[in-house]
Amino acid sequence: MNGLLIIDKPAGFTSHDVVHRVRRILRERSVGHLGTLDPQATGVLPLVLGNFTRLAQFYTSSEKTYEGVIRFGFATDTYDADGQATSLPQAVTLSLAQLQELAQTFHGVIDQMPPAFSAKKINGVPAYKLARKQQNVSLQSVPVEIKEFEILTFDGERASFRARVASGTYMRSIAHDMGQRLGCGGHLEALRRTSAGEFEAADAYTLENLERAASSNRLEEALIHPRKLLPQFPCVTANEEMAVRIRTGRAVNLPELSAARQVKVFCGQRELIAIATRVAGTLFHAKIVLAEAPARQLVE
Q1: 167 and 83 share one domain
Q2: What pLDDT was estimated at residue 161?
Q3: Mean per-residue pLDDT for 218-239?
Q4: What is the predicted pLDDT for the residue at 103?
Q5: According to the model, what pLDDT value does residue 50 have?
Q6: What is the pLDDT of residue 298?
Q7: How far apart are CA 19 and CA 8, in angstroms?
Q8: pTM tops 0.70
Q9: Cα(105)–Cα(141) distance, rounded to whole angstroms?
Q10: What is the pLDDT of residue 116?
Q11: What interhelical angle do 207-215 and 15-26 show, nearest 10?
Q12: H or E stretch covering 276
């Protein structure tokens, strides 16, 4: 099965837990996710199935949007509510205006220190594995881009927010850093990803709904239409002769599409067969073949 679907990840599941569950539901071994969500977090988790796992390379820098809650008054070792407190709770004397002013300093490209409990690798070992063993975790700050970060409400301890960030940004670190700057400590209490790249929460399926769709043979309804994928690449529809050449790895002349360097090649309206790269003029070669030629065509 080739395709892409969006799961509304429940709290308490790792992204890999979701992948394993979907493998069982769909009886499809080749399943991968396009960007990890922390176990505590919920929301948009795009999954690629079958040959569409080859598209993952195009989603390494997808923009993300989030909604969440920061709790002020103490910090934790994981920077979120799953961790152990690293300071005693203290009274918070802050205003919404103060938090909104501070949030303005978390805009643009900033240097961010990833949490010790993260998937960042140290000599090939994920940092969280070292942190769990209480071993020294020495990470370097990295530049991240925060495109929008707005504090919406504040009840005296908890602040709700909305954010739009580039890939690689840790909202946990933003919550922790805000608490440090304010001197009262803080951590991320709740987080929901509302979009990732072109994928929105409105198109997401819960695991339970996906299971029901599978049991009633309605799985195609759960798959995102392939023409919606990678909107930065124009679509071109190949005729049968072109499709055979593309599926067998040969270059082909495609209709002129302005100066597009890469295009999505379809056979019919729904079958995405390749991502092709311009060689010269109208000549394109498949960078990634997503639908192999039938055995009959291979023999010919």
Answers
A1: yes
A2: 98
A3: 94
A4: 97
A5: 95
A6: 43
A7: 12
A8: yes
A9: 17
A10: 85
A11: 10
A12: strand 271-280
Domains of the chain: total: 3
**Token pair of 164, please?**
């739009």
Q: Do both 68 and 191 map to the same domain?
A: yes
Is the domain of 190 the same as that of 97? yes
160 lies in which domain range?
64-195
CA dihedral 252, 268, 287, 56 (to 10 degrees): 170
- What's residue 257's pLDDT? 67
Residues contacting residue 147 through CB under 8 Å, at least 6 positions apart: 63, 107, 164, 165, 166
Q: Are 263 and 239 in contact (CB under 8 A)?
A: no
- Give the whole-angstrom CA distance, residue 253 versus residue 64: 36
CATH number at residue 21: 3.30.2350.10
Residue with tokens 């209709």: 255
Residues serving a catalytic function are 38
Sorted by sequence, the CB contacts under 8 Å of residue 77 that are 6+ apart come out as 83, 84, 86, 116, 117, 131
pLDDT band at 296 (very low <50, low <70, confident <90, very high): very low
d(CA 300, CA 297): 5
Among 43-47, 128-132, 183-187, the range scoring the smallest mean pLDDT is 128-132
